[in-house]
Amino acid sequence: MTSTPQSWLTDMDGVLVREEHALPGAAEFLQRLTELERPFLVLTNNSIFTPRDLAARLVRAGLVVPEASIWTSALATATFLSDQLPGGSAYVIGEAGLTTALHEVGYTLTDVAPDFVVLGETRTYSFEAITKAIRLILGGARFIATNPDVTGPSAEGPLPATGSVAAMITKATGRDPYFVGKPNPMMFRSAMNRIEAHSESTVMVGDRMDTDIVAGIEAGLETILVLTGSTDLDEIEKYPFRPSRVLQSINDAIELI
């Protein structure tokens, strides 16, 4: 591992929090980054909430993270679209996290001849909205999705998420979406641009091999897998790639800062 990492990227759920509670060492890890003035971003594929919403959620868990230090798939998607077609238009299926991000980069939200159909996560997917998206894509709109996660967590169990709805739209249109969020390394690159980080001195901490770790490797970063989330130690062997380090929790990463 880089002897003295200068910048840090870290996943949120499974690394810093789990079921609205801070994981051991998370507060101390964030405090250490702040004390040493290490640039960092907390990354999440969740496109429902704005950074302000997520910062408030973290405060309730006892973790202090500034809004500016949170990078979502919605923000990454808005950045990507603004680079592709500045001042464009989009038909959006999603919540405030996504619509706010698009408004902030100057996009117009419309259901009349949009440049893009943008699919994000919502707890209220409607048949009417999905039908509209299908017809707009068939009419020429380009298909973008914030992230490929097929399920999301809830207190009652898994819920269908962006990837599942995207698959339904693809089946109806024959058009595959471009997924911007993890495991697309573009999300990491846009995050690093935000904090002016360099790949050779940046570390990614995550709890999933198939998103956090593979995307970090493809972005040229050092990677740390923590075992407080969705990956068990024996599952690592299923993958043809390896993280730079495997730690029990974020608490064990504090000494590496």
UniProtKB/TrEMBL annotation:
Gene3D superfamilies: HAD superfamily/HAD-like (3.40.50.1000). Substrate binds at K182. The lineage of its organism: Bacteria, Bacillati, Actinomycetota, Actinomycetes, Mycobacteriales. This is Putative NagD-like phosphatase, Actinobacterial subfamily. One of its GO terms (cellular component) is cytoplasm. One of its GO terms (molecular function) is metal ion binding. Its cofactor is Mg(2+). Divalent metal ions. Mg(2+) is the most effective. The active site is at D11, D13. Keywords: Carbohydrate metabolism, Hydrolase, Magnesium, Metal-binding. Belongs to the HAD-like hydrolase superfamily. The keyword Metal-binding applies. Mg(2+) binds at D11, D13, D207. Signal peptide: none annotated. It comes from Mycolicibacterium hippocampi. It comes from the Bacteria. It holds the Pfam family Hydrolase_6.
